[in-house]
Design a protein that fits this description.
Bound molecules: ligand C2E, magnesium ion
Strand order of the largest sheet: 1-2-4-5-6-7-8-9
Oligomer: single chain
Number of strands: 9
Largest sheet: 8 strands, mixed, barrel
Number of helices: 9
Shape: globular
Mean pLDDT: 95
Radius of gyration: 18 Å
């Protein structure tokens, strides 16, 4: 059953840009420094409370309104990052479902121009689980984004059905390993082998790797030992309004 009142509330929220951003730190494994923040959108539905992003973002996709949310997030976060005390990287998630409109690259360009943010500080994450539309259009559009000097991440790697095809055909600069895989590190030697091989695969294609969902020092140690450049997860920091610019001490 469709929750029509939720649809109406979401349309209202979109027309008023009534969203918030939570920030999640990205740690450079070699230096243990926070090098970037990922922006994660939040919606506090009036009278109900926070709605899980996966739910309201899927609804926005169904209503073909996801572009509006992504546009707002891009403009808002580029401006915010331009005002940070340190020139760290900014990672923004965009739904691949509107790549085929060929408006994504223009939107990114206008957010960069309006904010003055250096393109080299921005990276865009596209979830591998999403629908990338016709392959010729997605390839062209992603190439335009790369031409702006912006980095491209294939998010949730290992969860979709076309992971290798996308890796081969599209101009991504980083693979983000999905947390379902990371959670099994150290528990199953076959998972350890797959993660090692994925890191080797990424590096052989001149791409970097980020592991998401890192919750233990053991997982961090394994990933560091096998050359995973970046780490994200509750071990480093949870999504929050506040921005811890340094890794919280675990002593
Ligand atoms: P994602 O980009 O893969 O973001 C990571 C998700 O995993 C976040 O969930 C985060 O809270 C969670 N997570 C990170 N580390 C850990 C960990 O160590 N343990 C556990 N249990 N969970 C962890 P969240 O915030 O619910 O976001 C869900 C998804 O919503 C994101 O997945 C992303 O695909 C999408 N999303 C978020 N913001 C936007 C946006 O502005 N636009 C679009 N199109 N999608 C967005
Ligand atoms: Mg992401
Ligand atoms: Mg992910």
């Amino acid at each position: 059953m469709t929750d029509t009142s939720m649809e109406e509330d979401l349309k209202q929220a979109i027309s008023h840009n009534a969203f918030q951003i939570n920030w999640m730190p990205v740690l450079e494994t070699a230096t243990e420094h926070v090098v970037a923040f990922e922006a994660l959108v939040r919606w506090n539905r009036p009278g109900v409370g926070n709605i899980v992003p996966d739910i309201f973002l899927k609804l926005a996709e169904k209503l073909t309104l996801i572009e509006n949310i992504d546009r707002w997030v891009l403009h808002y976060t580029c401006q915010a990052a331009q005002n940070w005390e340190k020139p760290l990287g900014l990672s923004v998630n965009i739904s691949p479902s509107w790549l085929e409109t060929e408006r994504v690259s223009k939107t990114i360009e206008s957010a960069l121009l309006a904010s003055g943010l250096a393109p080299s500080r921005l990276q865009i994450e596209f979830s591998e689980q999403g629908n990338f539309g016709p392959s010729d259009l997605s390839r062209k559009e992603l190439s335009r984004i790369r031409a702006l000097g912006v980095k491209l991440v294939l998010d949730d790697f290992g969860t979709g059905s076309q992971a290798l095809e996308r890796l081969i055909d599209l101009p991504f600069t980083q693979i983000k390993l999905d947390r379902k895989l990371i959670h099994r590190i150290g528990k199953d030697s076959r998972v350890d082998t797959v993660v090692r091989c994925l890191l080797h695969l990424a590096h052989s294609l001149d791409m970097t790797c980020c592991a998401e969902g890192v919750e233990t020092e053991e997982q961090l140690g394994f990933l560091d030992a096998h050359g995973c450049e970046e780490i994200q997860g509750f071990l480093i920091g949870r999504p929050a309004i506040a921005m811890p610019f340094d890794r919280p001490s675990n002593t």
